[in-house]
Amino acid sequence: MTLNLSGVGLTHANGQVALSDIELQIAPGERVAIIGPSGAGKTSLLRLLATAQQPSAGRIEVLGADPWRLSAAARQRLRARIGLIHQAPPLPPRQRVVTAVLAGKLGRWSLGRSLLNLLHPLDTAGAAAALARLDLAEKLFEHCDQLSGGQLQRVGIARVLYQEPELILADEPVSAMDPVLAGHTLGVLSEEAGRRGITLLASLHAVDLALAHFPRILGVRAGRLVFDRPAAALTRAELDALYANEQLQQPATPPAAPYVLHIPRC
Amino acid sequence: MLTLAVPRDPAALPRLLLTALALALLWPGLSLSELDLGVLLHGDSAATMGNFVAAFWPPEHGREFLDLLGRATLETLAIATAGMSLALLVALPAALLASRALSLSALHRGGRPAWWGALLRWPVRGLLIVLRSVPEIVWALLFVRAVGLGPSAGVLAIAITYAGMLGKVYAEIFESVDPRPARALLGSGSPRLVAFLYGILPNAAAEMLSYTVYRWECAIRASVVMGFVGAGGLGQQIDLSMRMFAGGEVASMLLTFFLLVLLADQLSRLLRGRLT
Amino acid sequence: MRRPGNALLLLGLLAAVAASFIWLEIDLGALFGADSLRQMGDYAGGFLSPDLSAAHLQATGRGALETLAMSAIGTLLAAGLGLLLALPASGRCGLLATSVARLLLNALRAIPELVWAALMVLAAGLGPNAGTLALALHTAGVLGRLFAEALENTPGEPAEAVRLAGGGRIAAFCYGTLPGVWPQLLAYTLYRWENNIRMASVLGFVGAGGLGQMLYLSLSLFQEAQASTVILAMLLLVLGVDALSGWGRQRWVSA
């Protein structure tokens, strides 16, 4: 089991409940999409799985180990095997794209190699290859503040591809891209997962993209796992129930006025 | 599949050159400054420093000494204040002369004076730069030789250096406020001083006051430092006590210095808050 | 504006200024009177013909290089030490480390450079080494505090992301925090270099080498012509460093 969550809950410091009672098992090599309304807890779930936060309740197992029972050093080694694609890419504006991508392997490199890489990139070819898969090879030596939102997201993805993790967690990886580019990028991620036999877990806004690229769909709403289905078996009613929002009033359509033929009296 | 050639890093050469330059400058730098960090950790130098610092305790608090300390502190305050007021007397006219804000030739050139207008202002600007760039303690040393030991030298040194600093900053403040009122007055024929008083001063007063009070605070610290070369005040007393190896006295005076700096800082904040 | 309060305050300031002159017993008449001005004029006259002989120019040149090296190496050391202390002082290593680092930085800052120089001359003997160490220690306190503030105000997400991908703390700092914050650090360092070149000239007065020591000697021996050359050299040095620092800040800091 790559991922195993039982009875997991997460409560923020201010008392707000982000997740409650999550039961989830994901086998190695699976491709799973997480969908749900805004604020449902998708990001919290992914950050939990990336060991960024400790669950307030329940047990979590990632890549065969409970990360919070490990020593700090062992947890860092575990984290090097997990690749988290952030929703807002955490890239310093003045950093060059090549350095940003090469930072993916910092979990594996020694300190000396990491510092030397800052002076002069040691694996330009590797970074170029990762960027080429996302059609960004020509931006290799540009600075991050010269890129658009969608390009920055792709650099973030290239960094995780360069990292070569055993588990990829993607938090809205294509939110700033146009539909065609988004589909293409998800295709690249799926292809990477399939080729290396690794697990891919992605949260998405666009339901059609999720249904098109992922065989298994998780629905999250108000911190709970509402459904866990194969994509083909998902019904329209379940999707509506997932995204139903009682607070958003449907604008009242006025009743169509009956058409009255007005014949002028002369 | 086409194997792309690995692109060359455009930043590689500049970085290499910069690193080479830094190393090339570092070597003579280290040898000229005779840097030797080991000296701090060496046995006897540490012992010497240790003995010196140990003599600081207990700080001297005899009645006569505290009297002397109080008078020296007041002297330092007086040197700073008197020096600043003299500096103001020079800085204001100099700033008026040097600032482009009162240039008549700039009226119809969109704010930039004609070449002869800029040329005439250069001597004043140059003078202000020279006054600023020579460290104030050098002025203090010169004045001690010229007018003898004591606070007069300190007052004159502060007056000259700070005249340069205040003059330059005032000129820049005059140029940075809205130029239209002054230009309107100049354009309708009023004398330059009147244009300044009615057009520039109201807007610039707050910033000028704020900077002047900040500089007064620096002047207090400078007065203490200048005392080391005989310009009176707390610094001169610290120098005398250090020569006599009277550690306790030096400790008391250093403590007083810290308190003075703290008080000046608070006073300066108060004044800037109330007047601006 | 609080009119009556402010009027009172201004009156108070004028009174303070008057009191200062009275306390100091400076006889302005005597100071700016004919005799005194003539005396100053005579003294100043000695400076109008600086000694430009080859031997003295060589000595002055060497003194200038010594002063330049003192200020540059001292500021460089200070930047390194300051950054080292700024890391705990900005709260990255726990509360105790923060308090200790802040205390140390305040202590380094509060002691003026001249006092440090006097201490260093005791420890290291006469010469530029004392001056370099004194500048380094005092400026480390100043830069450390400025660096800590810059580090506190910089976003922490990039470094956190590197940590989350398994990177070590140092790597996370260098890849996540440093790229965003180094222009500010460089600006502070260059600005302090401008200040230190002035102080380096002056530290020579307590025996720390360079142009300051030469000036003190020539003034004590009443050799005004030689002193004048040294002052000119100081002036050129200060103007040069100001220009270099301004260029550096324009090139690398204003992005």
Written overview of the protein:
The complex is a heterotrimer of chains A (266), B (276) and C (255). Helix content of chain A is 33%, strand content 21%. Chain A is of the alpha/beta class and 266 residues long. In chain A, strand 8 (216-221) and strand 9 form a beta hairpin. Chain A is globular, with a radius of gyration of 22 Å. Chain A starts with a strand and ends in a 23-residue tail after the last helix. The model of chain A has no long low-confidence stretch (mean pLDDT 88). Chain C is globular, with a radius of gyration of 24 Å. In chain C, helix 4 crosses helix 11 (224-252). Chains in contact: A-B, A-C, B-C. At the A-C interface, helix 2, strand 5 and helix 4 of A face helix 8 and helix 9 of C.
Largest sheet of chain C: none
CATH structural architecture of the largest domain in chain C: Orthogonal Bundle
| Helix percentage of chain C | over 70%
The number of strands of chain A is 9
Provide the helix percentage of chain A: 25-40%
**CATH class type of the largest domain in chain A:** Alpha Beta
Strand content of chain A: 15-25%
Helices and strands of chain C, in N-to-C order? Answer: HHHHHHHHHHH
Number of domains of chain A: 2
Helices of chain C, by number, come to 11
CATH topology title of the largest domain in chain A: Rossmann fold
Low-confidence stretches of chain A: none
- Radius of gyration based on Cα positions of chain A: 22 Å
Largest sheet of chain A: 6 strands, mixed
Q: What are the low-pLDDT stretches of chain C, counting only 5+ consecutive residues below 50?
A: none
State the end-to-end CA separation of chain C: 40 Å
